[in-house]
## 1
Amino acid sequence: MENSAIENPATENRQEETREEARRTRLRGRLLIAAVAGCAVLGTTLMLLPPSGRPASHAPAPAPGAQALTAVTGGVPAALPDLAVLIGERERLLRRHPRDAGSWAVLGAAYAEQGSRTADTALYPRAEDALRTSLKVRRNAEALTGLAVLANARRDFRTALAWGEAARQLESGRWTAYPALIDAYTGLGDYKAAGRTLERLLELRSGPAVRARAAAVYRDRGRREDAAAALSDAAAAARTPAERAAYLERGGQLAFERGDREEALRHFREAVRVDPDQQAARAGQGRALSALGRPAEAVTAYRTALAQQPLPQYALELGELYESLGREQEAREQYDLLRAAVERAAGGGADEDLVLGRFEADHGEPASAVRRLRAEWLRQPGIEVADALGWALHRAGQDEEALRYARIATDRVHGGAVRSAPYLYHLGMIERELEQSSPARRHLQEALRINPWFSPLGARSATQALAALGDVPDADLPVLDAQGADARGVTPRPYR
């Protein structure tokens, strides 16, 4: 019994070793759990820490041709060097695969974009040939949309509308046809249809290109603040420098239209900084610098733009700037360049009768301007044409008829909601000639209130005409009731 009660030392040692091993096993388990938990906490902490100074690895930027392809097929501006690469790639591909309808459509769209950006209208027939070849291989919405865009670039809005509608009928859910349709409807003066088309576009797509298109419609409706906000958003979200520069340029146009010279110049300069090939922004710099009283810099900006994109409108603006400075010979040289540019454009199927009519009305033969612009009005009765025709009729001495077209251009109900300083100037001058002093004074004042620098010649003429009209007689002032409304119940509101 005593022997059985006494523990064997060897057995006791073995039991102690077993207990010690169990303790070590439990300890290793706890350490392992702690280590795993620590790693998890560390990983989470590292994820929340700001990135280190070491550069992050990024995917390589797309090749120039790929960037231009994305832009062209997505309906956004493309960089000129990238366009040249894309055109070369597609031409080589089509030599090997001449029945590739998609590549023909891309090539045609790229030709059209390049022609528009450089004012090389000789590229337009090549664009049309490529797009029609695409349709011969296979009827497709890409080629139909490209033909609509090309027709808009040529200012052939009825043809653009036909091609755009064909693209929409073929693929109603394809968003890229809708911007071309908006441009076509606007050119034809159908602003309600343009608005409905924008609504459908907004249902199908969002993004910077759509915001920029919406801005154009807002501007035509007189909603400049909404237009400026949409363009600001579009520029901030643009995916390429060329796209951002295009939206900045349009923002500069809006700023200048409302008389904000400094803001316009900032937009135009930033656009050129982002994309040195943005010649519309260079011409915009000329416009803004002239308004700021810096004519030498304005001339340089215009001449730089004309060297790369010889549009008739730029030549007209530079010629009028020279004329305002008393440099008649240099003005005549620009007007000669304008005529030559219009002839070149006609060779590529582009219609520049609107700018030529404007030129003839003020600096050439007003009767010729009337004939040209009457025909233009029959083809595409947009607000720009109504204003130009009204002014040409005034310059030709036909003020009664001129007044009808000037009112169309400025009538909020029938489409002229943009409140353009040049349009109101034209209306006021026609009313003055018809001895309608009160409305003439009101419209000339409004033109100068919107933008006192809308034209180096026109703004000066408006100021002189107002001075000649004199102060407002008491009989011209409306009698307002206690609520500030006139006899018609209308409360006058300042321009916004």
## 2
Amino acid sequence: MNEIEQLRQEFNEKISSCQSLSELNDLRVSYLGKKGPVQGLMKLMKDLPKEEKPVFGQKVNCLKSELSDLIDAKKVELEEKEMLSKIESEKIDITLPGRKPNIGTIHPLNLMWEELEDLFIGLGYQVIEGNDIVDDLYCFERANIPKDHPARDMQDSLYIDENNLLRTHTTAIQMVVLEQSAPNPVKVICPGKVYRRDDDDATHSHQFMQMEGLVVGENISLSDLKGTLLFMARKIFGQDKQIRFRPSYFPFTEPSVEVDVSCHVCGGKGCPTCKGTGWIEILGAGEVNPNVLKMAGYDPEKVSGFAFGVGIERMAMLKYGIDDIRHFYTNDKRFADEFKRFE
């Protein structure tokens, strides 16, 4: 009995000095574990007289229960203490000024895309988008590009299988629109990404954006095309700009032209930017080839049309003074932040 009382006093002293849950757990194991002193008291019963065993056993069980209750109470106390300490350490001073969030900006290519879309929607054009993966029929054959044309070379185009490829121009969208619209008039712009086998450098990319326009109807002439593109150039680059047509060749159009705009740096006088010519090439265009109209279901004797293709990266580079197309794809926030003023 003296050992029981001594053990009780010893435990009370030790539990009062416990400062953490880990210390409390160590104390519990050392006293109530299989090798602890409480279990050792139970082993003494075999040496006691028969009549003393029940009383002694009851006392040991009471001690065990008492120690367990003390441990549970101390555990609650320490848990509360740790929680309060954690709350104190994580306390936030709500009177401090908040951090200003780092807000992104619209990408310059999206700015250019949206500006061109708004411009042509204002002229009555409908915006049509299509799939990046297209059938060879609509990407080439319906655009009057025969089987032996260099544009079909595997070095230029990214084929998925014999009949499907990543579109090399958004003309593929226009061919579908023509087929679905015949014989009704068409007035659409078709923006989207295009893909080609090309080495990336300051002015070329294997992936870039185009926005092609197409108008088909009665009495559509080359002068209508020039008026439309002059309006676009002045809206994008300034009201003092002029454009000029130079003869060119595209299978989709006949006649075909390259379109230049007067240099934004020298105003047409000649400088290093325009290589002394006073002009900068911005796009290709022309009247829709009669073969294209015929394949789509139109009568080229009754209707005509014009088409043009704008490179969105090229337009953005000219408007914003960007010297390397790769800047658009580096995800450098410092570059994007420069265009907040244009939003």
## 3
Amino acid sequence: MNSQELLHETERSEGEQGWLATFADLMSLLMCFFVLLLSFSEIDVIKFKQLAGSMKHAFGVQQRIPAEDIPKGTSVIAQEFSPGKPEPSPVNQVRQYTTNDSQPLVQRLDGQAKVAQAALSQSLKQAQTRIQTDMAEHLKEGRFELDNLGQQLVIRIHEKGAFASGSAFLQPQFVPLVQQIAGILGDVPGEIIVSGHTDNLPQRNELFQDNLELSAARAIAIARVLSNEANRWRLKVEGLADTQPLLPNTSSANRASNRRVEITLSQGKAINRELSLIELQQGNHNG
């Protein structure tokens, strides 16, 4: 056999036996697979003894192997992630304890509210005293009236001296008086309500169609003078016409008392008290 024939025979033999490499690889993989199964497995001692007993009755042969010597695999999952043991609760009974702190809290809040209200009332009295002291001359001349209604201080400006009949133009000599009132009210907390009032006689001219429009215009005129940096955000203007008269509109004097603009410093609800005729008549005489 020459060299060419020998080479050809060798190549043919290798081609016929090439399946042996694939088979060897397959066997290696199967062996690795079973080794891994064994490494991840864990033999149960009780089941092993039951299986051994069954084998004994079936074949009559048993090799006595102590249970503690039985080889078994160790699970990595069991080692790293073993379940925790349940621990009994140290408290056998769940109890809830409450304290009666609501009543003292309400009392404290009520006390704080009373202190705050007392402080507001004191500031209102101080404003009244300051007006009576600093503007005593204007009060004596009857240019305005002062009335304390508990949580409201009312400064009542009548038409006489402040406005011409049927007009909403504030007289220039009256502007400094309103400015002085604005300065005093600026230091006192509370809402400032400016409300215009008229009598029940119909009012209609080239400027105003009725008493409602006239009363609103007069209130706006006073509010513009009162509006400073301390008062502008708490001003409220109302035009009430003849809906809230001080006195019945049965005489010219009563109607003159009803034509007014009221500046009310409000810190709460006013007390229900009507002005007596004597107080109003005294005010009219002083004017």
## 4
Amino acid sequence: VLINGAAGGVGHFALQLAKWKGAHVIAVASGAHAPFLSELGADQFIDYTKSRPEELVHDIDLVLDTVGGPDSKRFLRTLKRGGAQFPVLPGDFDEEETVKLGVTVSSAQVRSNGAQLAELGRLLDAGTIHVAIDSTFALTDARAAHERAARGHIQGKIVLTVA
């Protein structure tokens, strides 16, 4: 599994869940996040500021792109035939290209699922996965929290507190 944006709010959970399921995980993020991602269990790390992941890895089963956008399609050629790419933010993918490569691209809207949330609760309680907190803001400072998110390079989740 290759996870682009592995240090962020979604990526750091995805990495831990993939490891829990026994996957070999390649984490893509900026170099500052290498120690954090190693602690979470990444098997391999690619600093996207120094290397282009799509030039280094091939025959991937699954790409989870938590960054998404127009550059997301560059990961298609890292997949093996039968592989899948899941962009968290849907991008522009050429259906002819995905058919030719023998890969699928899909996305989904997040919906609450009681059984899945209960399982996540058990994993959190057991210490199998944990939540990393990038920063905390009072609800009244939600604008500052949004500005923090817009700057990117987040390590974990941004939290809003209610007084």
